[in-house]
# Entry
Amino acid sequence: MITRLLGLCLAFTLCLLTQSAAAQSVRIKDLVEFDGVRSNDLVGYGLVVGLNGTGDGLRNAPFTEEIMQNILERLGVNVTGEQFRPRNVAAVFVTSRLPPFGRAGSQIDVTVSAIGDASSLLGGTLIMTPLNAADGQIYAVAQGTVIAGGVNAEGDGARVVQGVPTSGMIPAGARIEREVEFAFADLSTLRLALREPDFTTAARIEAAINRRVGRRAAEMLDAGTVSVNLQQTGTGSPAQAVVAIENLPVEPERRARVVVDQRSGTIVMGEDVRISRVAVSQGNLTLRIEETPIAVQPNPFAEGETVIVPRTGADIVEEPGIGLAEVPGGTSLSEVIAGLNALGVSPRDMIDILKSIKAAGALHADFLVM
# Structure
């Protein structure tokens, strides 16, 4: 039935049904974030040079000229009062992410994005750019050749752009200069933050950790937090304690949820979605209006002028839809959609039906519309 359902849904754009026979175990490391083990965002303002005439127009981007003057003066070149209008430079924002436990000397990827009116960053080179964190301190320095993600070609009368040539990246383009001070080895308590807070899942994580260490080391604080006393885990260090618990399997408990995308007609649902006893009736009305004006002319050799006489035809057609159908209580949503597909209902009409069932209080799940 599921194979047939997917085939019918794909024929009417796309309808995705996810259903599993039994819950599957997931590692704790895929369900939680460890407190303190996080990345930090970095940002910088720099200059890309070496462009083939696709850089900023300095009249429209005066900040490009300003940073170019600053860089040249730091290199010992005096350009005060000089007029220069190169088209091979572009001002850019440089963004990156400092990984947890990133050490000085390590390299990280950076993303480069034009902020002026440059048309392409293809073939450009980023000049040494400091990257700052939210505290204003410099944590990395970026430099290197930009790999742009698009193509830009133009002639005298036409222009073709594919992708986004004004944005690119530099693999391993930044080197970490400052480390984030975090003494992980000195922790005595570690908090696990659930990515999707749920009391049942948190209780299962607590039970799995306590079974592993043989004592009550974990304690559920709320639906989104489990605290682990590292002294009670029986390991030599906090890092060893994380290794001992992060790969433990746990069956997560998730809320019943239906997600629909009206633009593409996609429907995604979980296996726990249920529908109470409800009756459904659906039909379509089509309004047709036709304009067929007639030109009326005077007789030959007669005085007068041509007059346009409007003629409008209006009609309302009720297309056949679903008659009154009763859905028994406890029916799964997948069974309802399978029945609607068998009747030839399109995914967009199906979404409207699901909205109405939810409004009637018969659909027991979170209903998310994208």
